[in-house]
Amino acid sequence: MALLSGAFLAEMAWDPARCVLAPPNGHRLVVRPVCRVGGCSTTATTARKICLSCQRRLRIAGLGDDEIGVLPAPDEPTRLAVSAPFSNGPCEVAACVRQRRHPDGLYCEAHQMRLRAERRRDPDLDEARWRRTDPAIGRGGEVSLRGLEPLVVAQVLYGLQQRCLVERVQTKESDLRAVCDDLRRQRVGSVAGYVVPKSSNLGFLGLANSFLAHARRAISSPEIEVGRDEWDLVLFGHSGTVSFVAIRQPWLREATKAWAADDLPRRRVRPGRRTSGGLSVRHHVSCVALLSESIGLRSDHGTRPAALGRSDVEAFLNRLAYLTSTGRMSTDARIRAVREVRGVLSRVRAMGLTRPGGVAGGLGDDFVIGRSDVPAEPEPSSTGRDLPPEVMSQLCAHLDGVSSPETRCAIALVIDTGRRPEEICNIAFDCLERDNDGLAVLVFDNHKAGRLGRRLPIAEVTAQLILIQQARVRAWFPATPVGELKLLPTDRRNPDGRSAITPFSLAFAHRRWVTALPPLRTADGVEFDKSHVVLYAYRHSYAQRHADAGVGIDVLRELMDHRKLDTTKSYYRVGESRRRDAVDRVAALVFDRNGNRAWQQVHELVESEHARRAIGEVAVPFGLCTEPSNVGAGGTACPYRFRCAGCDHFRTDVSYLPDLGAYLDDLLRNRERLLASSELDEWARKEAMPSKEEISRIRRLISRIKAGLEDLGDDERASINEAVKTVRRHRAVAIGMPRVRRVGAELRPERHQ
Ligand code: SF4
Which residue has the higher pLDDT, 324 or 524? Predict the structure, then answer.
């Protein structure tokens, strides 16, 4: 009772004298469907949402469901409190709050009728027991805890408090009443002794189990828990439980417990979210259980640590190899099992537990798993995990078919930004910012590496998607402060928008969507294996897309938010290196509008600006434009009517030489045609005439680029020409700078969000 909050009890209108809870109508977390007849506050569980009493009144009045507006409000029954003076005394049924019907009777009228019915059914009824266990007469909005042991009352109230204040999950009043009635029926002294009926519905089961767990946690702590063979990991800041009972040797079990107690505090914890910490510890323990099983085959059952040696380690390793050979364990699982047992044994030794007197005292020095005992990992597949562009196009074309707006938005964001699914799921409501140029930046937390508040330049189309989602969420949860909202709130157990969809539910919804799609086909028309279409593949596709477009590995590392270049390298195929080399080589000959070499400046960019530039360009007919508003609009909003040859935002390179030549020819042809034309007024001719300045600028640009080529040695020139051919074959490629917006638009032609 000391753990209960007075404010919570007041909110639930807890009446300690009557032992009754009366959560207010419309409470966010303790819910019940109320009859829709005006003035009636009775619970109505039927699909019609009209309570039985009002249904009867409707019938008598000859009215239909659509005429409930004319039905008068029911008479409010007098609330009878046991604390109030009873004229006839309280009903003798323990749970009942009513008064007796007659001064010389024992029960209220309703219980008197129930007793009669029970007696008809069972002439040998034990009336004293029936009196103690029969439920209270149901009254919408009230749950009676009368007749329960004081400890059980405290456990129920505490469980409800934790559900409301900590877990913020909904509790149905009908489930709460049913659990209380069943606790009373079983006459338990503590919820620990309660046997949850096997046939219970999910709501009942969830509530009963959460009462059991909260009652247990209320009087436990990590210090108490480590002495048990099953731990509730919630007490360590993680989720789930871990059981050590499968480890049969007492010394190994205690040593593994010591390892777990040492390891858990170092695991990542996130408020309100499940992390992989508990999962990882559980997996380590299950691997040690395999070792336990192996040494358990010895004649001494492996109970004496001093008797164990290298031959036992070899037996364990051979056993794993055998399981793999018979298909009962995958190669990955075998490697992981060896690694994890090695980790536990090394740590146990480092913690001094193998010293004399320690739990594993006397364990032989040769009972270790060395680095060389870990089987070699298979070579990574050279096909990569990214999806072919044509498959991406088909997926994006069907994206509108995802029914849940949150799931649709999450999948679109994973595709557009290449973030990990868990990063997108947990993104905050106010994740969209603008940089100094007004360009969109996504702010996200990289929980995997513990790097929070990361900034990723994103395309305007993605920013628009976020803005639409923000408006939807704001309308959905108007009362929650913006700083506490999630961009992708879940529709389950989330009354205030503070909980986001989970990576698990997103992956599940994504798989269901992909499975329901028509067959996906490669460019050759071959059916593509849908099992490869997983959320993480979009991250690989994002990396490959940028690598193909020639983004430098350092910029790509920034975009992927990796610490090590080696990690980034594993995200794209080396087979693409030829194209990347070509882009790098052509990048040596980049020019501004005046024909000055521009690439040097790009190299001097600071890291964050580099990432921004990496997606901050858009294609124009014979080069690239870096003007922010035009880039933001995907190249359709030039503020200078596309006078690129005279614009500071323009840049071109040697691969555009043929386009520049064609443009010059075009200008000259137009000029000749206009001069020869007699159909135009003089002013119109003047306006349509290509300017001499533009022609001379283009000429100068062409000659500068050609001169740049001339300056090269024969070998270098040949290599540049080869590179130009490669780059022109992949015209979507910009020089060192991918045009993500254009790539994105090509991949998602049908998106209308
Ligand atoms: S004129 Fe300048 S701003 Fe306009 S498209 Fe050309 S480079 Fe971009």
Answer: 324
- To test ligand 1's pocket by mutation, which of 591, 627, 659 has the most ligand atoms within 8 angstroms of CB? 627
Q: What share of the chain is helix, strand, coil (3-state, %, to 5)?
A: 50, 10, 40
pTM: 0.57
- Residues 6 or more apart whose CB falls under 8 angstroms from that of 394 comprise 517, 520, 521
* pLDDT tens-digit map of 122-149: 999 999 999 999 999 877 788 999 999 9
Residue 627 C-alpha to ligand 1 middle, in angstroms?
Answer: 6
Looking at ligand 1, which residue's alpha carbon is closest to its atom 7? 650
Q: Terminal CA-to-CA distance of the chain, rounded, Å?
A: 52
Q: Is residue 618 lining ligand 1, measured as CB closer than 6 Å?
A: no
Which DSSP string do the residues of 220-233 spell out, in sequence order? --HHHHTTSSEEEG
DSSP for 29-79 reads SEE-PBP-STT---B--STT---HHHHHHHHHHT--GGGGGGSPPPPPPPP
500 versus 653: the higher-pLDDT residue is: 500
* Ligand 1 and 625: CB distance under 6 A: yes
pLDDT of 740 above 80: no
Ligand 1 atom having least distance to the Cα of 638: 4
Pocket-testing residue among 640, 653, 656, 701, ligand 1, by greatest number of atoms within 8 A of Cβ: 640
pLDDT in tens, 473-531: 999 999 999 999 999 999 887 878 888 999 999 999 999 999 999 999 988 889 999 99
Report the alpha-carbon distance of residue 663 to residue 675 in Å, rounded: 18
